[in-house]
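Below is one such record:
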Amino acid sequence: MSRTNETEIEMGRVERGVQLECEPVGDGRYRVTGGSSVHWVDLISRDHPRCDCGDYLWRETICKHIIAARLREGDEQVLTQLGALVRSLKQKALEQEQALRNANAA
């Protein structure tokens, strides 16, 4: 099966992935918990990571479990996306704060 979206990391999955716990169980293999069930991730092949969840198996996309495992390994692409997520959340917080100030000033 060809995985067309393997290099793309969706921001929403990054947000969910950072909330998971990731335990190494072997070289490049992880047990990921914190969601609705336990999942197993295999990062042995960096070009073709694998997970046993439906999101990965059926949607042909990098899932939150793979993101959690890659984050655990310090993957540069995931860390870059995490930085973008933090910047986005900070910007939203500033916008909400400004809107609140404007509403109070009116």
